[in-house]
Amino acid sequence: MAISDYPFIEAWRQVLTLSRLEAGQTVTILTSASTHPQTLSCATIAAQSLGAIVNRLDLPPVNGEKALSRDALAYLGTTPLTGNHAAIAALKASDLVLDLMTLLFSPEQHEILQTGTKILLAVEPPEVLMRMVPTPEDKTRVTAAAARIQAAREMRVRSAAGTDLRCPLGEFPAISEYGFVDEPGRWDHWPSGFALTWPNEGGASGRIVIDRGDILLPQKCYVDDPITLTVENGYAVRIEGGLSASLLDDYMASFDDPEAYAISHIGWGLQPRARWSTLGLYDREATIGMDARAFEGNFLFSLGPNNEAGGSRTTACHIDIPLRRCTVSLDGRDMVADGKVLDQA
Ligand SMILES: [Fe+2]
């Protein structure tokens, strides 16, 4: 449903204020072929109304011919910044980058963040952004969960469907995604609301059952029949099941890259305004599926790279898989019980 400009501008002002934007700072809005025009205009007005100097940097898209999916998160690797020294210099010189393009994690993004520039990704449609305008309470809840992950040595995930996964922790940091960028060098994504980390390299083991109704991204579909992943030494070594498993297996095989099968980020959703059911209401072209990634009480895991956490693994393939009805525990204490977040755990 359409959104009026005025409340959208006010929402942007809230996000920019939470991101500590100050008058006189420089905001660069990164755009490309798929940038939503209303998001661009309302972000521009909001940043100007707070006294910022606002630039727009429009970059041509890349990777379209390589990806099987139209989803911007489906194919990682080179970005429009690769080798683009002029663009990188402009972004480094900015206090805040509003990424309306989907830059994704890349060496160039890492380099820009290291200069203190903040980057906020916002590419979901306006009504999704408006439904999930971040709040200080979102940050409190997500950072509390991230602190528990940071202190833990093992994450274990079980479900009645048959999941029993053990992930040793400690090599990689815990990450909070709460929807605004209030520290120098911070990257975040509006909308979000989850805490995550990565298993120690080669350490994840067990079984993951992606049950009927769980979600595959970028496929942006609910699984019809269970998929069983056997995990050994940090990799999914077998993908078994019926049609859903065959479709996932074929898609992953297209990358012809053994690193695609590594267990990547693991964590759980903490955003009550995100819903498991919304994916069924949207055209696949209209969303990147942040409701699915953030809905409260999911166990969100991923297959693919760990370079965004400082690891050495890069791969173009990246699959996010939110599961329902899991129990997630840290060092034996339940944090999520059968899909319900236990905040006092
Ligand atoms: Fe992911």
Name some characteristics of this structure.
345 residues; alpha+beta; five-stranded parallel sheet; binds fe (ii) ion
Topology:
Layout: H1 5-18, E1 26-31, H2 37-49, E2 53-58, H3 85-92, E3 96-99, H4 107-114, E4 118-121, H5 126-131, H6 136-151, E5 154-159, E6 164-168, E7 175-177, E8 187-189, E9 194-197, E10 205-210, E11 215-216, E12 221-222, E13 227-232, E14 235-241, H7 243-253, E15 263-269, H8 290-294, E16 299-303, E17 319-323, E18 326-330, E19 333-337, E20 340-341
Parallel strand pairs: 1-2, 1-3, 3-4, 4-8
Antiparallel strand pairs: 5-6, 5-18, 6-10, 7-9, 9-15, 10-13, 11-12, 13-14, 15-16, 16-17, 18-19, 19-20
Helix pairs in contact: 1-2, 3-4
The structure holds fe (ii) ion.
The site of fe (ii) ion (FE2) has 4 residues, from loops.
Describe the structure.
The protein is α+β, with helices and mostly antiparallel strands. The chain is built from 8 helices and 20 strands. It has helices at residues 5-18, 37-49, 85-92, 107-114, 126-131, 136-151, 243-253, 290-294; strands spanning 26-31, 53-58, 96-99, 118-121, 154-159, 164-168, 175-177, 187-189, 194-197, 205-210, 215-216, 221-222, 227-232, 235-241, 263-269, 299-303, 319-323, 326-330, 333-337, 340-341. It has an 8-stranded antiparallel sheet, covered by helices on one side. β5 and β6 (164-168) form a beta hairpin. α1 crosses α2. The longest helix has 16 residues, at 136-151. It is globular. The two termini are 38 Å apart. The protein binds fe (ii) ion.
